[in-house]
Design brief:
By secondary structure, this protein is α/β, with parallel strands linked by helices. It is about 35% helix and about 25% strand. The strands form 4 sheets. Strands 1, 2, 7, 8, 9, 10, 18 and 19 form an 8-stranded mixed β-sheet that branches. It has a 7-stranded mixed β-sheet with strand order 5-4-13-14-15-12-16, sandwiched between helices. It has a two-stranded antiparallel sheet with strand order 3-6. Helix 2 runs parallel beside helix 7 and helix 8 runs parallel beside helix 12.
Length: about 400
């Protein structure tokens, strides 16, 4: 006897997509969430590919009604160089826009819609232990009253994000091959900001791509601004209540005094060592999704899209397994997810070693190449018809080298 078909740990985007899909397919679902919503979390810029996942899980209309700011592309700046991408010009003819979202509101909208659709969510409830087998999974949790209880399910999906519940309980975490970095960030209120033209995420790189600043606009003049860099640098900028960070964003040359004398809506926050890997993404009776699998780096805003992709994929396969179908989790889940993560990994590494910047800020770039890169930036990292996906390990360094040779020859 089981209490639910599936128990999902975490009510963020991965958990919301998973639970909505399973519920729509007639499975009984319980979501266990440690925190009380709404709650602040970073990771505010979506990618167009996540729109596919929201739509398929029946959550897109609810998000459309929430009034989030549309995001139509991305702008990369390095000193006086600029490269702008419009998602309408991407190679993969898919979604051409998405949203910039205040995650407290976005996650609340998703959770509320899931509840409206009939899914039970236990907030302020923490998972203490999980025991998995080929048949029955037992989840021990502490409810909001402090009582310890146990429930049984046919399958468990870990969508706990930074909490990484099953990687912690099952000792699955391992170091990432991405260099340890961190971020310091806040929200500011730009009362005089002109809304027109403020629809893209803006990235300013400096110190040879060792550090970069993000700017994400929200409705009403609220703006997320943060600094990403090596851990020692971030600690330095976060000291004394973020005093050096505040000075940086108000005096940084390429921001043109945009954040001079703007009020901060909360004190700067710091996150360190967010890049993390995992030994395996599935096991008997369970699957990991979202940040419980692997988190690389925030440079290309891949976090929520990987969460919704993995959440939807895990839900589909769990539904099939519960219905008696044989599921090859290694081939149909982990291997598929790794392909997309590995594409993002190549671009993250190319950003920090300078190869990607050589392409972005070249004197000229082939329109076809730019469109294909744009699809990667839109999150379509599983599109094997795109050379910048299929050949991601070699195409970036080779193109960067060719550009360097051409530009050096031009100078001579």
């Amino acid at each position: 006897m089981v209490d639910y078909d599936v128990i999902i740990i975490g009510a963020g985007p991965a958990g919301a997509v998973s639970s909505a899909y399973l519920n729509n397919k007639g499975n009984s679902v319980l979501v266990i969430e440690k925190q009380i919503f709404p709650r602040f979390v970073i990771g505010e810029s979506l990618l167009p590919h996540c729109m596919d996942h929201l739509e398929e899980s029946g959550l897109l209309d609810a998000v459309k009604k929430a009034g989030f700011k549309k995001k139509k592309g991305a702008i990369f700046n390095s000193e006086n160089k600029k490269c702008e991408f419009s998602f309408s010009e991407q190679y993969s003819k898919e979604w051409e826009w998405t949203w910039q979202v205040e995650r407290a509101k976005f996650d609340q909208v998703l959770a509320q819609e899931v509840q409206n659709q009939g899914v039970e969510i236990k907030f302020n409830t923490s998972v203490k232990n999980v025991s998995c087998s080929s048949t029955i999974q037992e989840v021990e949790y502490e409810d909001e009253g402090g009582d310890i209880k146990t429930l049984k399910a046919k399958f468990v999906i870990d969508a706990s994000g930074y909490g990484r519940v099953l990687p912690r309980l099952f000792k699955l975490s391992e170091p990432s091959d991405i260099e340890a970095r961190g971020s310091v960030f806040t929200h500011v209120l730009e009362n005089s900001r002109q809304e027109k033209g403020e629809e893209n995420i803006i990235v300013h790189s400096f110190e040879n791509n060792k550090a970069w600043i993000w700017i994400i606009p929200f409705p009403g003049g609220r703006t997320s601004v943060g600094l990403v860099g090596e851990e020692d640098l971030i600690k330095d900028y976060a000291e004394n209540n973020g005093e050096k960070f505040k000075k940086l964003i108000s005096t940084f040359e390429w921001l043109n005094e945009r954040f001079v004398d703007v009020p901060l809506l909360f004190d700067p926050k710091m996150i360190l060592g967010y890049s993390v890997g995992v030994k395996q993404m599935h096991g008997e009776g369970y699957a990991l999704c979202g940040n419980s699998t692997e988190f690389l780096d925030p440079i290309f805003s891949s976090g929520v899209t990987l969460a919704t992709f993995t959440g939807l994929k895990a839900a589909k396969l769990a539904h099939q397994q519960i219905n008696g179908d044989t599921v090859n989790w290694q081939r149909d889940y982990e291997d598929v997810i790794k392909k997309g993560i590995d594409v993002f990994r190549s671009y993250v590494k190319a950003w920090y070693n300078g190869d990607f910047g050589k392409i972005l800020f070249a004197k000229s770039i082939e329109p076809q190449f730019k469109n294909q890169i744009c699809s990667v930036l839109a999150g379509y990292v599983w599109d094997q018809s795109n050379p910048f996906v299929k050949k991601h390990k070699t195409i970036i360094p080779v193109l960067a080298k060719v550009i360097s040779i051409k530009e050096k020859a031009g100078k001579n």
